[in-house]
User: Which sequence fits this backbone?
């Protein structure tokens, strides 16, 4: 089954485990099963506004290359999945946009 | 393949793909060459439209200041002034991350950056803009705008920004410390990668070297300043003509900042006078758009050079500490890196690619990498050729050189002993596919330069040294679209959305020509606007020849399939009987029935009409990226600290060089930019937080008098993800020069220069410190 490499910021949710083997034929199935074992991890991995997308700022590297299919990315039984920061961070506390031209 | 141009030499080491090419690997004249050479290419500043008016931007003179009041009344009343705007006219963008390819930013920050609302956070931050009948009237109107500022304490260094109690660049910045939310901070992000147990491995290491390196922020130095012309149409749509590396990513940014549908915006990419990563973000475009909406005319804005330095994004400066341990045989056992980059006034320094690249050239079984994205009161940094890698690699490669000296190992042998290979795991986790790291080191080791003796210095006060360094850039794949229209005369039009910065019209056309069996000159490429081609990601991440080239191959293959059907109609035979090779269609069921591609094009109208195909790709990753190794000889005047580059050789893996002259050009250009960053280029920032050298006279970029002819060695380890084996090569070439020169100076002088630029004053100070009091 696919091996998921847990990024350091997420390891507090996995009890410090750096790698986890999770059954699943797609990234979505793997994340759903991760969530059942480690509650709270899915909300760190999935975009709350679009359940087909990874969380903003996160990349899933599957077998060495970033997925372009989001949670629909097919996985092989021996696949390696890395959830890595895609970007430098920093967010604004300001409210979401409210004024248009 | 060996070529010579002047004293330049180029060699090629074929190590893979044995496919025979007819067009790929040749050196046709670029399709846009005539227009560029004769001055007929149309750049953004050349735009002339009916009713065009001109704009100017008022910028903050302070690095950090609250905007107390702006009085526009006199400017608005001035004759010839058509519109005036401030931050109050900007929509309030949603807090949303914009992934622009090599550059990522939050829409709120992108909006704030182009026009301040309540406070200016860098010198040059726009606070108002004017549109007027001509440029001089607009400039005069700026003088009539009265802005009251409350000057605030600023932070312009990483140390200042990270100090306890430091003034905050943003009151509302929410940072992340390895995933934990942090408020009231200038550290936007702290990421960490860890593998194995570095502390335990250091405890067992035979030799450990640790260095702290400092790198100045450096500007891309593109010749053409930022410019934008916008027309807000009566129906609410917007057209923007601009100099950009990515018309579609710019459309997305404008959509978020202006809060209008992307489909209502058309971005027309003009010819681009250099970018190097600096023309991904938006600067003037939203201001021109809003001014146009207010005055009803198309509005043109063009930056002055001072504005380019003050208010656009250079590559970040940083403080990088690298520690590395080896065993008694010189095998690396552990390494750690602490990478701190000054992002400028908004988050988004390239710390993640820095973390990916910092140890990419080496197998490191035990490693920890911490990287910090720190906001400071200078303009927001941007991507600059292999963004993040040169600064971090400077530290790694100088540490490697020191280890080689300590243990007495040849630097090429050390690299070959420790180099990453296909299947090795990167320190950030994923494994490399087939890569050409070892091959670039072997290419340098086998070069005439490596075998040549350094020679004697030209005078007793001068000393010579030689240095080597390696570097890596991962690159990206992503989305590209290419349409091919076949003309009756056998020439095909190739329509693409990739901005052509480095000759990619030709390198993409050549890939289509290879499939079609025609000459590169018989493919006419055109870069078109966002309404005229499918989505195409930006020209960055060393992706264009690789990914848009793959789209061109796909479109050309579709053309061949359709043309086979047409040939079958001509010969009244089954399509399965038609063969195609080397540009000739053959009827396998009959003797002597052949048609060249061109001949068959002449029969299109009688076999069903025109042929038009579109290739669409969305490629996962780059196929392993590109490695490079450089070798440099220097001579240093110990009386003045002046450094002369005597000889320079660059080896880089191109996978398959589509147009070798362009590959050589990228390798040479990257090396020259790296030489500038190594020896001269820096932002000199005064106590007032203002850049003191914001002109090309004072910001010292290398000229042709400063650099020697650069020898290039194109290594070809095929990329398994590209049909022809192509790798993106535009960026890695800037990574090795700085450490290679530091290593050469160490060889020449016996002192280690760890701060960039290694300008004469720093060299003299190091020599004086070496001599003692």
Assistant:
């Amino acid at each position: 089954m696919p091996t998921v490499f847990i990024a350091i910021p997420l390891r507090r949710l996995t009890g410090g485990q750096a790698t986890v083997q999770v059954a699943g034929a797609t990234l979505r199935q793997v994340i759903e099963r991760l969530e059942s074992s480690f509650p709270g991890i899915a909300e760190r991995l999935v975009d709350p506004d679009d359940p087909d997308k990874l969380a903003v700022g996160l990349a899933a590297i599957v077998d060495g290359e970033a997925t372009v299919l989001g949670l629909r990315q097919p996985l092989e039984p021996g696949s390696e999945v890395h959830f890595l920061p895609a970007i430098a961070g920093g967010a604004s506390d300001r409210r979401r946009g409210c004024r248009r031209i | 393949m060996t070529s010579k141009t002047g004293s330049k030499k180029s060699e090629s080491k074929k190590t893979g793909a044995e496919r025979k090419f007819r067009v790929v690997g040749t050196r046709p004249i670029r399709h846009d060459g005539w227009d560029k050479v004769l001055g007929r290419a149309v750049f953004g500043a050349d735009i002339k439209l009916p009713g065009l008016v001109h704009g100017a931007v008022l910028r903050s003179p302070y690095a950090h200041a609250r905007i107390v009041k702006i009085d526009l009344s006199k400017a608005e009343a001035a004759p010839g002034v058509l519109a005036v705007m401030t931050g109050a006219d900007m929509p309030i963008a949603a807090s949303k991350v914009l992934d622009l390819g090599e550059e990522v930013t939050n829409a709120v920050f992108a909006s704030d950056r182009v026009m301040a609302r309540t406070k200016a956070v860098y010198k040059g931050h726009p606070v108002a803009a004017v549109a007027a009948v001509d440029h001089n009237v607009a400039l005069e109107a700026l003088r009539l705008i009265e802005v009251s500022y409350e000057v605030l304490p600023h932070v312009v260094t990483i140390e200042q920004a990270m100090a306890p109690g430091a003034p905050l660049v943003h009151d509302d910045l929410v940072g992340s410390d390895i995933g934990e939310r942090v408020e009231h901070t200038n550290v936007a992000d702290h990421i960490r990668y860890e593998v194995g147990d570095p502390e335990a491995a250091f405890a067992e290491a035979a030799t450990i070297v640790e260095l702290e390196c400092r790198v100045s922020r450096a500007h891309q130095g593109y010749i053409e300043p930022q410019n934008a012309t916008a027309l807000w149409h009566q129906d609410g749509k917007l057209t923007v003509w601009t100099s950009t590396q990515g018309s579609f990513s710019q459309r997305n940014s404008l959509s978020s900042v202006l809060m209008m549908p992307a489909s209502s915006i058309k971005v027309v990419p003009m010819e681009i006078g250099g970018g190097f990563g600096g023309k991904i973000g938006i600067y003037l475009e939203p201001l021109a758009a809003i001014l146009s909406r207010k005055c009803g005319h198309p509005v043109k804005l063009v930056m002055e050079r001072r504005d380019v330095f003050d208010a656009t994004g250079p590559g970040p400066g940083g403080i990088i500490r690298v520690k590395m341990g080896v065993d008694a045989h010189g095998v690396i056992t552990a390494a750690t890196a602490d990478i701190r980059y000054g992002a400028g006034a908004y988050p988004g320094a390239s710390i993640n690619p820095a973390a990916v690249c910092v140890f990419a050239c080496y197998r490191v079984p035990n490693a920890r990498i911490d990287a910090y994205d720190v906001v400071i009161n200078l303009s927001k940094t941007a991507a600059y050729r292999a963004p993040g890698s040169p600064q971090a690699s400077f530290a790694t490669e100088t540490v490697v050189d020191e280890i080689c000296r300590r243990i007495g190992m040849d630097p090429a042998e050390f690299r070959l002993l420790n180099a990453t290979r296909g299947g090795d795991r990167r320190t950030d986790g994923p494994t490399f596919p087939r890569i050409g790291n070892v091959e670039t080191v072997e290419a340098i080791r086998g070069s005439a330069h490596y075998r040549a003796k350094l020679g004697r210095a030209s005078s007793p006060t001068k000393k010579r040294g030689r240095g080597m360094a390696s570097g890596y850039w991962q690159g990206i794949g992503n989305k590209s679209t290419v349409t091919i229209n076949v003309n009756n005369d056998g020439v095909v039009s190739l329509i693409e959305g990739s901005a052509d910065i480095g000759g990619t019209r030709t390198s993409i056309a050549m890939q289509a020509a290879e499939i079609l069996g025609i000459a590169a000159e018989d493919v006419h490429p055109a870069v078109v606007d966002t309404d005229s081609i499918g989505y195409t990601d930006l020209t960055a991440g060393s992706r264009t020849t690789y990914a848009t080239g793959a789209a061109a191959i796909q479109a050309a293959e579709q053309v061949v399939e359709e043309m086979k059907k047409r040939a079958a109609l001509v010969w009244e035979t089954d399509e399965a009987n038609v063969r195609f090779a080397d540009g000739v269609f053959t009827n396998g069921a009959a003797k002597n029935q052949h048609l060249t591609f061109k001949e068959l094009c002449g029969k299109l109208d009688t076999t069903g009409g025109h042929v038009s195909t579109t290739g669409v790709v969305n490629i996962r990753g780059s196929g392993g990226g590109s490695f490079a190794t450089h070798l440099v000889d220097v001579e240093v005047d110990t009386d003045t600290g002046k450094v002369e580059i005597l000889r320079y050789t660059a080896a880089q893996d191109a996978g398959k060089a589509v147009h070798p002259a362009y590959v050589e050009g990228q390798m040479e250009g990257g090396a020259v930019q790296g030489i500038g960053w190594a020896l001269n280029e820096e932002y000199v920032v005064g106590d007032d937080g203002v850049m003191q050298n914001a002109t090309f006279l004072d910001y010292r970029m290398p000229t042709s008098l400063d650099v020697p002819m650069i020898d290039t060695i194109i290594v070809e380890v095929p990329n398994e993800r590209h049909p022809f084996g192509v790798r993106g090569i535009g960026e890695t070439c800037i990574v090795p020069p700085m450490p290679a020169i530091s290593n050469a100076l160490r060889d020449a002088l016996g002192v280690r220069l760890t701060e960039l630029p290694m300008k004469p004053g720093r060299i003299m100070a190091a020599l004086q410190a070496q001599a003692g009091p």
About this structure: The beta strands of chain A are 3-5, 19-21, 58-62, 65-66, 80-85, 91-92. Chain A touches chain B at residues 5, 8-10, 44, 56-57, 61-62, 64-68, 80, 82, 84-101 (CB under 8 Å). Confidence is low (pLDDT under 50) at residues 95-101 of chain A. The two ends of chain A are 51 Å apart (CA to CA).
